[in-house]
Design a protein that fits this description.
The complex is a heterodimer of chains A (277) and B (225). Chain A is of the alpha+beta class. Chain A is 44% helix and 11% strand. In chain A, the strands form three sheets. Chain A has a four-stranded antiparallel sheet. Chain A starts with a helix and ends in a 5-residue tail after the last helix. In chain B, helix 3 packs antiparallel against helix 4. The chains are: A alpha+beta (277), B alpha+beta (225). At the A-B interface, helix 1, helix 6 and helix 11 of A face helix 1 of B.
């Protein structure tokens, strides 16, 4: 067989491999996220379906399964600017992604103009060598999908997340904020809202079945809004706010209970604002 | 056979491309790992380390390393070339880079970038190292490691180049080990003149002679900076 034929055969193999890989990833990502908050999320979803057969709210997670193809879309995950790229804000909004064309990112459907803030929050889980992590709280967090505050690192299904917000969002399940059939849920789609009728909360593009997780993540969402406001003054302060650290240039500490936060800082209000119910 | 090899190579390359495209990029697992300074601050380095085996921790462009005490900042100019897992990054002064045995720094920082009298070093918002006053050794050979404390310096750059430096190359003439080359050392050399030494045999040629005296005179008055 000629060299060209061999290359052609190789390219065909490449295409086949890519298709297999993408399909495999999609199925894994989809099923993982459905079960993120509760190992038996599918059963829980079915129960809601039975209670409200007219609602399509119960199919929210699965209705966006195809969207998880984009979990593996490099351009959608990594901030960069390409004014000639097609606008992908719709996808980015659904997947906590970045639109290269508009040079903006989205987390919990909130638009983030600051690349450094988006990257600091980094909504997509990281693959680390978990065996290298020796912190006992982290080890416990790995086992329980928990969060280690001293290290500023949490885990969901073995992937690492570096903020309370993104860890909380990863613990929920994907949802399109405009699709809930339940009116109470739909009304609350612009802000974190817990619906007692559905026993379900929503923050942007993410649904929660666990109320505590919802409340905690909603608080972090409020901090995100404050941080976005802060980017006008100092982007690194905004970054520090979201991870409760110290700004490396202003040296203002946003660590918990820090007395050093200026009184007019949006972080003050963020800490005081409770999530709505 | 050639056909098979070609196909395997292409498939392997495809796998690598897919793996690379799915890696999550970030900076979160880089920590400030080791610092070294001469007493005068002209010879310094800061070593960072990727601590968690992260495959995508390469997005350093625009991220800062800062010293709270001096206010100095270093901004990374570009992202890293993967893979970064468990690698080191070496920021150092030019005077460090000029020392024999020094690995090539990945980036040059100005002298006195950080204070040896206590400092807080930060990498972006993801790592903070508070260094107590007096914790950084200034004996020209010891560094401060984040985990193990003071010990012989071991700077390592991103390519894996490593070494150990003596910030006082004239140390060989400090016969009595008091960190300065002075008349006491001269006296010790004269006392051993014409013998095999050993402590004043500076050039290791089995006899203390005018060659050793020349070395001492060249270093006379120097001290660990």
């Amino acid at each position: 067989m000629s060299r060209n034929s061999a290359i052609a055969l190789g390219l065909i193999s490449l295409v086949c491999l890519s298709i297999i890989a993408v399909n495999g990833c999609y199925k894994t990502a989809h099923s993982d996220r459905d079960t993120a908050e509760h190992p038996h999320a599918h059963a829980h979803t079915a129960a809601i379906d039975h209670t409200h057969p007219s609602d399509d709210a119960t199919s929210l997670a699965s209705s966006h399964g195809a969207d998880h193809d984009h979990d593996h879309d490099h351009a959608l995950m990594h901030p960069s600017h390409d004014p000639f790229a097609p606008c992908r804000c719709d996808l980015a909004r659904l997947h906590n992604g970045w639109c290269q064309s508009c040079n903006v990112g989205y987390i919990a459907t909130v638009q983030i103009d600051s690349e450094i803030l988006y990257s600091t929050l980094d909504p997509h889980g990281h693959d680390l060598d978990l065996d290298l992590i020796v912190c006992e709280t982290c080890r416990h967090a790995i086992d329980k999908d928990g969060y280690c505050d001293p290290c500023g690192m949490g885990f969901v299904r073995g992937k690492a997340f570096f903020s309370r917000l993104t860890h909380g969002l990863a613990s929920g399940s994907a949802v399109d904020p405009v699709s809930p059939a339940c009116k109470a849920c739909r009304i609350g789609s612009d802000e974190p809202r817990w619906c007692d009728r559905c026993a379900r909360g929503a923050i942007g593009n993410t649904a929660f079945n666990n109320k505590e997780t919802f409340k905690r993540t909603a608080q972090e969402y409020t901090t995100l809004l404050a941080a976005i406001e802060k980017t006008e003054d100092c982007e690194l302060c905004a970054c520090a706010m979201t991870v409760y650290r110290t700004c490396p240039t202003c040296f203002v500490s946003y660590e918990p209970d820090s007395p050093g936060i200026p009184e007019n800082d949006p972080m003050h209000e963020a800490r005081l604002a409770p999530p709505s119910e | 056979m050639n056909r098979n090899r070609t196909s395997i190579a292409i498939i392997a390359a495809a796998g690598a491309v897919i793996a690379a495209s799915t890696a999550q990029a970030g900076v979160h697992t880089w920590d400030v790992n080791e610092v070294f300074s001469s007493a005068d601050g002209l010879i310094q380095y800061i070593e960072l380390k990727e601590t968690a085996g992260g495959v995508g921790e390469i997005n350093l462009a625009g991220r800062l390393v800062t010293s709270e005490t001096t206010g100095n900042q270093f901004v990374f100019p570009a992202n890293l070339v993967p893979p970064p897992s468990l690698k080191h990054l070496l920021l150092a002064t030019q005077s460090f880079a000029d020392l024999p045995g020094a690995p090539t720094p990945d980036h040059i920082i100005p002298p006195n970038f950080f204070s040896t009298a206590g400092d807080t070093l930060r990498f972006h918002t993801v790592d903070t190292w508070v260094i107590a006053p007096g914790a950084i050794p200034t004996d020209c050979v010891s560094s401060l490691d984040r985990i193990t404390g003071a010990g012989v310096n071991s700077p390592t750059n991103y390519d894996g180049g490593s070494g150990s430096v003596d910030a006082w190359p004239q140390r060989i003439a400090d016969i009595n080990d008091d960190n300065v080359v002075d008349t006491a050392d001269l006296g010790a050399l004269i006392a051993q003149f014409g013998t095999v030494g050993p402590s004043a045999n500076l050039n290791g040629d089995d006899i203390v002679d005018t060659a050793d005296l020349g070395i001492l005179i060249a270093a006379f008055g120097s001290a660990c900076p």
